[in-house]
Specification:
Shape: globular
CATH superfamily of the largest domain: P-loop containing nucleotide triphosphate hydrolases
Strand order of the largest sheet: 2-5-8-1-9
Number of helices: 13
CATH class of the largest domain: Alpha Beta
Structural class: alpha/beta
Largest sheet: 5 strands, parallel
Strand content: 15-25%
Radius of gyration: 20 Å
Helix content: 40-55%
Number of strands: 11
């Protein structure tokens, strides 16, 4: 199977509605193929909802959106049992989490209690409600959006929950050429959503995932990975480095990136491509360092590459 051609087709289809964001689209697909979940942090109106809906269309997945607010309760996401007086029994009404692609919009505008309602679902692809465990559809993919933490009415995600997201992305402002094309496309009736063609079936997705499990990584590649991870745990710039789960996430995404480019082995460039999206939200700077996660990733990469050279 020519995986790269399949991915290129999906990226091009999503690119019809999310202009000029090919790197982010590829990373989002990598996250989904690697069986992870995606956190998108950016200002409102950057295309976060557009990306999630487009991915659902291109992969033929069922899609639901939950707007997280300060009064949202866990039952609003998971579902609730309703008493039926006719036969004196309870019937379960599933919540929006019972879907293949869930958009958790503005997740940091709700309370930690409601945020935590997603943890079991994201980790184990199941939810336990009133003592009964219920499986979620396959594939199950959460895209959560987060407003910048300096905005009012936000509840910061704790590090333990941030670590549940395989990747974090920022879409950023569009390139001027892409923005000009967006202006030229816009019409008075332009609020109608463009329905994209399905480019990857669930069967094809599962075959691609099976290929990821067969990817080979050399001893030198694993040495390089361990140097990257060790640097985050020992350098003075870091208060919190990459956990074992974070290191495994980095390797899983590098394997997936290799398969997406029709390769059966991981090369250092695969690690480099996924490193910022996988590591930045897991790193905590020390009190003496004023940089953010992205700056820490660049510092780590530069210093470890000197060691590798």
């Amino acid at each position: 199977m020519q995986v790269q051609a399949l991915i290129d087709s999906a990226v091009a289809e999503v690119g019809k509605v999310l202009l000029g964001k090919e790197p982010q689209i590829r990373l989002a697909l990598c996250c989904l193929i690697a069986r992870g979940h995606l956190l998108i942090e950016d200002l409102p109106g950057m295309g976060k909802t557009t990306l999630s809906h487009a991915l659902a269309d291109v992969l033929g997945l069922s899609w639901k959106r939950v707007q997280f607010t300060s009064d949202l309760l866990p039952a609003d996401i998971l579902g609730v049992s309703v008493y039926n007086r006719n036969d004196a029994s309870f019937s379960f009404h599933p919540g929006p989490i019972f879907t293949q692609l869930l958009l958790a919009d503005e997740i940091n505008r709700t309370t930690p209690r409601t945020q935590s309602a997603l943890l079991e679902a994201m980790a184990e692809h199941q939810v336990t409600i009133e003592g009964e465990t219920r499986p979620l559809p396959e594939p199950f993919f959460v895209i959560a959006t987060q407003n910048p933490i300096h905005q009012s009415g936000t509840y910061p995600l704790p590090e333990s929950q941030l670590d549940r997201f395989l990747m974090r992305l920022e879409l950023g402002y569009p390139h001027p050429h892409a923005e000009r094309e967006m202006f030229q496309r816009r019409r008075p009736n332009g609020n109608e959503r463009v329905v994209l063609e399905q480019r990857i079936s669930i069967e094809q997705l599962e075959r691609v995932r099976a290929l990821v499990a067969e990817v080979y990584e050399s001893t030198n590649l694993l040495d390089y990975l361990q140097r990257l991870v060790a640097y985050t745990r020992t350098a003075a710039e870091f208060a919190v480095g990459l956990s074992p789960r974070g290191a495994l996430a980095l390797l899983d995404c590098a394997r997936t990136w290799a398969v997406m480019h029709n390769r059966g082995n991981v090369v250092p460039e695969d690690l480099q491509m996924v490193l910022p999206a996988v590591a930045a939200h897991r790193l905590v700077p020390s009190g003496d360092y004023a940089g953010d996660g992205a700056a820490l990733v660049e510092l780590m990469r530069r210093n470890v590459d000197v060691i590798r050279a």
